[in-house]
Specification:
The chain contains 2 helices and 8 strands. It is of the alpha+beta class.
């Protein structure tokens, strides 16, 4: 599949509580030893890795992230097809370049660039 789903994210109002819930419910090892205390879930077997943590806004959400090479052209295409950009292209040095959009039905979808940006 071109542009595969490579990451999931589950966030809410109480990130620590969500992390404990998913640890207990699915025996996930969730690593929060990072500067953002974002709970990283390592990929196992055929699964993809993801994150569980605190929402940046007021609403909880679960989303998937699709890997792309040319984020701007995909966001332009998303808009032309009736989608809405929610978070434009954003880079966290040394970690990820990402964006969020809503599809025509309102689902929040993330995109990540296929290459990790250099650290500052």
């Amino acid at each position: 599949m071109p542009n595969p789903v490579v990451h999931f994210e589950i966030v809410g109002r109480d990130g620590a509580r969500l992390q404990q819930f998913y640890r207990d419910a699915f025996d996930w090892a969730i690593d929060v030893d990072n500067p953002m205390a974002y709970g990283l879930v390592e990929a196992q077997g055929d699964g993809i890795g993801g994150g569980v943590g605190q929402a940046m806004g007021p609403e909880p959400y679960a989303t998937v992230y699709i890997q792309v090479d040319d984020m701007r052209s995909v966001l332009d295409r998303v808009e032309s097809l009736g989608g809405e950009i929610v978070v434009d292209i954003t880079t966290i040095p040394g970690m990820v370049t990402f964006a969020h959009f809503r599809d025509p039905e309102g689902n929040l979808i993330g995109m990540v660039h296929s290459e990790t940006p250099p650290a500052e």
